[in-house]
Amino acid sequence: MSVTGGGIKVFSGSSHPELAGLIAKRLGQPLGKATVTRNESGESIVRIAESVREHDCYIINTSCVCPTPTGQAASPNTSLMELLIMIHACKTASAKRITAVIPHFFYARQDKKDKSRAPITAKLIANMLENAGCDHVITMDLHASQIQGFFDVPVDNLYAEPAALQYIREMVDVNKAVIVSPDAGGAKRATSLADRLELDFALFHKERKRANEVSRMVLVGNVEGKTAILVDDMADTCGTLELAAQQLVEYGAERVLAIVTHGILSGPALERISKSRLEKLIVTNTLPQSQNRARCSKIEEIDISHVLAETIRRSHYGESVSVLFNQIPYDTAQPYRHEHHLLNDDNAEDSYARTGVSRPASRGMSPSQSRQKFPPSPYTLPDPPAAQNYFADHNPANSPSLADPQHHQQQQQQQQQQQQQQQQQQQQQQLHLNPAMPKPIHSNSAEDTPKAERYNPSPLRQNI
């Protein structure tokens, strides 16, 4: 197991500070000190306000078009420039390694030349990240997994499928469910989910007159009398979901839900969701959703910060990340999902009273709440202790022996005594086996150049 020397630093751009804060909290690390501002002409100004020399730096910024909690909508271009400048700033400040954490990748839909003279912008983004000094990329549910081939640096493409599986198992009657792909391109994603749930699946064939506008959809499969679960990687203007939900109801579906990884929800999306036959739209928090949830009661959010945090931890320590492709890192039965309608649902209270089943605790973002209320899922791994700092063991400043010199001296003496006893036992065994061997001359003199236990800070150094 290899650890990058110098420790870890987690920085956040301005696109999604809420997600960055959750990731840092799960890692037991404070967010790194950095300021991101803009001047009068709109240029981004970035300053890393602490030392990153020989550190493993993770910079979190997403392709953001959603309103932030402050109500301001950030442009994907602005978020991209912030990320590039922060990467370059860390690189020129002698960071050991720089990882770009991009939950929703920039320009992921422009991954091929589908028209004459059309640019492959996703390839351009890959080149820009590498030229800025990026050594590693972490992202989630790329629109086309082939985008990983645009990079010459390692790319970890994570999946939201384990979180979607757990949500479906808890919130949907799987005996009456069917997985539906809104288009042929998502058939692989839908079949993978259906196979793991042992469910049937259906798909739509859709025809477009122009971008973001679907003219006709034809269903292949049977959804009559079932709960139809639409699965996709992103929802932008939601025209596809609106039309698909209407078609599914006409084909006989009792309920229609939609689970997407990236809730872009631009333009008329919220209005379409509110008026559609969709019962719920479940999205992850790869993009900020606070304003969207406040404006549309059908939107529910699943937190995936634990997946990104565990990926960062494993990457820092040189551990395998592939286990996260099929499993949720912690017992995320309830604590990582927002709850909106259930807490205020009188029918839900009556249902709990009639059945005698204990009511689930709040499903807020805090991992310390309601964890013991639900049995662990076979698809999850054990949850670490709350507020655990994964990096404390490798930080000399956090060592109790250094904090207490007397305790450290006692430990050193005990170790020396144990080493001397082991040496004497080995020598006695050798003499017993070979009596002719001369006895060694013992020396109690100290080493000429003892190893320094800790470097004292220079009096000339100023804290940044």
From TrEMBL:
EC number(s) given by UniProt: 2.7.6.1
Keywords for this protein: ATP-binding, Kinase, Magnesium, Metal-binding, Nucleotide biosynthesis, Nucleotide-binding, Transferase
Compositional bias segments (type: Low complexity): 408-430
PROSITE patterns in UniProt: PRPP_SYNTHASE
Enzyme class: transferase
SMART domains, per database record: Pribosyltran_N
UniProt-listed Pfam families: Pribosyl_synth (PF14572), Pribosyltran_N (PF13793)
InterPro entries found in the cross-reference section: PRib_PP_synth_CS, Pribosyltran_N, PRTase-like, PRTase_dom, Rib-P_diPkinase
GO biological process, one term: 5-phosphoribose 1-diphosphate biosynthetic process
MF GO annotations: ATP binding; kinase activity; magnesium ion binding; ribose phosphate diphosphokinase activity
Record domain Ribose-phosphate pyrophosphokinase N-terminal: where: 8-133
GO cellular component: cytoplasm; ribose phosphate diphosphokinase complex
Annotated stretches, region: Disordered: 343-464
Catalytic activity: D-ribose 5-phosphate + ATP = 5-phospho-alpha-D-ribose 1-diphosphate + AMP + H(+)
Protein name, entry field: ribose-phosphate diphosphokinase
Top-level taxonomy: Eukaryota, Fungi, Dikarya, Basidiomycota, Ustilaginomycotina
